[in-house]
Every structure is written in C-alpha cells, then in structure tokens.
Amino acid sequence: MSDTALPSVLFVCVHNAGRSQMAAAFLTHLAGDRVQVRSAGSAPADAVNPSVVAAMAEAGIDVSAEVPKVLTIDAVQASDVVITMGCGDTCPVFPGKRYLDWRLTDPAGQGVEAVRPIRDQIEQRIRGLIDEIAPAGES
Length: 139
Hints:
Blueprint: E1 8-13, H1 19-31, E2 36-41, H2 50-58, H3 73-77, E3 81-84, E4 98-101, H4 112-133
Parallel strand pairs: 1-2, 1-3, 3-4
Helix pairs in contact: 1-4, 2-4
C-alpha cells in the first residue's frame, strides 16, 4: 500500500447508534491516522445509545459528540472493507469490496452492564483487524 492509499473501513449497522459507533471509535483510537474510518446506518437513530457512550467512556474513549449517519452508496464505494453488524439485505454490495459480517448482540435498549461485553468483543475484533490491514510500523 502506498503512503497516500490508506486502508478505509466502513462499519454499518441499522441505527448507527451502538455497534458501528463503538467499532469506528476503537479503530480511530487504536489505529490513529493509519486507517480511514467511516460508520453509518441503514435507518440511523437520532443519537448514539447512552449506554454505549457510558461503556466507551469507561474504556477512555468519548463518543458523546458522535451523530448517527445515514448509509450512502458513496460511503460504501469509498471503502476498502465494509463490516456489517446486522443490517441484513439493506447493505449495498459492490464488486471488489471486502465484506465482513460481525455477528454481535445489538446494544439497543440495554444497560451499560449488557453493553460492556459487546464493547469488549468489538475491541478484540478491531485489534485483529488492525493487525491485518494496518500493522504498526507500516506507513
């Protein structure tokens, strides 16, 4: 990969208020400027889930200012890797993109106690993804 072609990842879930927000925040936090990060939802909520905000704050990451975004074809086309989290058939598929489907419990309506294990699973998967697409030491 050249210096100008950073790997780009798009995280998609239905409401863009929980799983995809946590994944995007972890990737941004852990990979820094080595990866371009996007997140979106097929039916975005009005705000990020408060339990997700609290669980991420416990991990030292502030997502309180994030706003759920609508999934666009442009976002998919601009991404190298598209990671879906339960958006089903509403996720557009384009040839040449890498698609992963992470089956994770939906944190919607859950308290922070229920969100913590989901957060931890996402962090673990993000660490593995970084090792694969943007290992430390590569620029």
